[in-house]
């Protein structure tokens, strides 16, 4: 394809669908809708890499056969990465069930934070569309927005796109160490309440106390920007519709507790006004896997299969912990949209499916190059807010198969299940 317009972008959870592309020798140049993530994603040249087995070039059939053999021998396999589209996620679930594997997305910790908060205290969510059209005041916690989704300001926060602000500028307050990445305009006013990551939970706690007119201990708040927080609390009481938005990766070591505090704050505000919470998640297709896992098993990830049962153990099923502790005996990395988040060397038999084999600094037992959804083959991804499924297009002829096709071939090549009789 030489040129394409209104192209959906799979490279972050924002799900922009307005890109205009022009083909070049090294990939696609972006004429409209460019950001750092889309330039890197669409700019990659077509790959002609071959599969490898034990470091030696091999046919795809031989690599699939070797992968099936390794998985057939494994007792505690792990499927991770999972940066793939809907079809790839469904195929991964089929393979995990057949091999009785554990599953954890490379951003599993972010989903884990939100689920724990929802289980503990509930929550009230908003969507990208509601955020763009209605929110008068937006709190950004643990992120300045564009560090996670580079076009967030342009596509969502810019007040000129709001249907119900009646021309009033939107106010955005960044709480944390990162400063806003944009300047004030007629439609958008920024404020930065600067505090280190470890003080952000205390700032949120103080903010809630101010909103509920509860007493605060002077010693406990001595290091907090209390004047700015008091002014913010006063403004929050005035707005009819607001949103609390957070970046899971920037919340620190106890992010699950902070997400719970943010959701509790949102619920408190809803006693008199309308507020919603939203996580800026979904990069590297995290929301896609979470949704597919949820509708297939009833759980949003971090699962293991045992017989016909699905076991949900979000604290225990952590890919890094399973690999470092020796709990797993075979790793399957499933990529496609992982970008720079490539797997590190594993000390167990490893099968890696990735579009970026040349970027690996180690040699897995089986390495299978695959295509990128939305570039090398068609597919579907789910936007960060879980409400929009984005149809991805095939933009060029590619030699590389889709992850789903490779996973289904590995599944078909597994040895027959052992059965026992009484």
In the predicted model, the low-confidence regions spanning at least 5 consecutive residues are none
How big a fraction of the residues is strand? 15-25%
The CATH architecture name of the largest domain reads 3-Layer(aba) Sandwich
> How many H/I helices?
12
* Cα radius of gyration in angstroms: 23 Å
Assign the structural class, choosing from mainly alpha, mainly beta, alpha/beta, alpha+beta, or little secondary structure. Answer: alpha/beta
What best-fitting shape do the alpha-carbon axes yield? Answer: globular
Kindly report how far apart the N and C termini lie: 60 Å
- Number of domain units: 2
Q: Determine the mean pLDDT.
A: 93
Largest sheet: 9 strands, mixed
Oligomer: single chain
Query: Biggest sheet, strands in spatial order?
Result: 5-4-17-16-15-6-7-13-14
What share of residues is helical?
Answer: 25-40%
CATH topology name of the largest domain: Rossmann fold
| Strands, total number | 19
CATH class of the largest domain: Alpha Beta
Q: SSE layout and pairings?
A:
Blueprint: E1 3-7, E2 19-24, E3 27-32, H1 36-42, E4 52-53, E5 56-57, H2 60-73, E6 77-81, H3 86-99, E7 102-105, H4 108-121, H5 128-134, E8 137-141, H6 152-157, E9 170-175, E10 188-193, H7 200-211, H8 226-238, E11 241-246, H9 255-269, E12 274-279, H10 286-297, E13 303-306, E14 309-312, H11 319-325, E15 330-334, E16 350-354, E17 366-369, E18 379-382, E19 389-392, H12 403-413
Parallel strand pairs: 6-7, 6-15, 8-9, 8-11, 9-10, 11-12, 15-16, 16-17
Antiparallel strand pairs: 1-2, 2-3, 4-5, 4-17, 7-13, 13-14, 18-19
Helix pairs in contact: 2-12, 3-10, 3-12, 4-9, 7-8, 7-9
């Amino acid at each position: 394809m030489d040129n394409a317009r209104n192209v959906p972008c799979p490279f972050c959870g924002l799900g922009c669908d307005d890109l205009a592309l022009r083909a070049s020798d090294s990939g696609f140049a972006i004429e409209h809708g460019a950001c750092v993530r889309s330039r890197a994603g669409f700019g990659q040249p077509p790959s002609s890499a071959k599969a490898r087995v034990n470091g030696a070039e091999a046919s795809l059939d031989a690599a699939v056969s070797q992968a099936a053999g390794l998985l057939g021998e494994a007792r505690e396999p792990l499927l991770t990465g999972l940066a793939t589209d809907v079809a790839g996620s469904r195929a991964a679930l089929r393979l995990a069930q057949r091999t009785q594997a554990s599953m954890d997305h490379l951003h599993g910790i972010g989903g884990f934070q939100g689920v724990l908060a929802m289980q503990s205290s509930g929550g009230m969510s908003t969507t990208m569309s509601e955020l763009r059209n209605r929110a008068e005041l937006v709190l950004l916690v643990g992120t300045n927005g564009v560090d996670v989704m580079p076009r967030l300001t342009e596509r969502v926060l810019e007040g000129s796109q709001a249907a119900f602000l009646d021309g009033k500028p939107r106010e955005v307050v960044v709480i944390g160490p990162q400063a806003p990445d944009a300047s004030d305009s007629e439609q958008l006013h920024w404020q930065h309440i600067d505090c280190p990551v470890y003080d952000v939970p205390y700032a949120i706690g103080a903010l809630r106390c101010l909103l509920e007119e509860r007493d605060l201990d002077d010693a406990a708040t001595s290091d907090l920007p209390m004047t700015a927080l008091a002014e913010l609390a006063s403004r929050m009481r005035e707005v009819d519709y607001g949103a609390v938005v957070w970046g899971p990766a920037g919340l620190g070591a106890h992010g699950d507790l902070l997400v719970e505090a943010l959701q509790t704050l949102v619920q408190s505000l809803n006693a008199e006004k309308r507020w919603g919470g939203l996580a800026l998640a979904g990069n590297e297709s995290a929301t896609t896997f979470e949704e597919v896992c949820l509708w297939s098993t009833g759980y949003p990830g971090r699962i293991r299969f045992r017989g016909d049962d699905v076991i949900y153990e979000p604290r225990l099923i952590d890919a890094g912990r399973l690999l470092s502790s020796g709990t797993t005996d075979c790793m399957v990395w499933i990529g496609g949209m992982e970008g720079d988040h490539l797997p590190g060397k594993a000390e167990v038999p490893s099968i890696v499916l990735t579009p970026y084999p040349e970027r690996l600094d180690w040699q897995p037992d089986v390495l299978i190059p695959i295509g990128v959804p939305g570039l090398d083959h068609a597919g579907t991804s789910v936007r960060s807010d879980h409400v929009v499924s984005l149809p991805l297009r095939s933009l060029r002829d590619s030699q590389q198969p889709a992850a789903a096709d490779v996973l289904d071939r590995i599944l078909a090549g597994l040895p027959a299940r052992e059965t026992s009789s009484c």
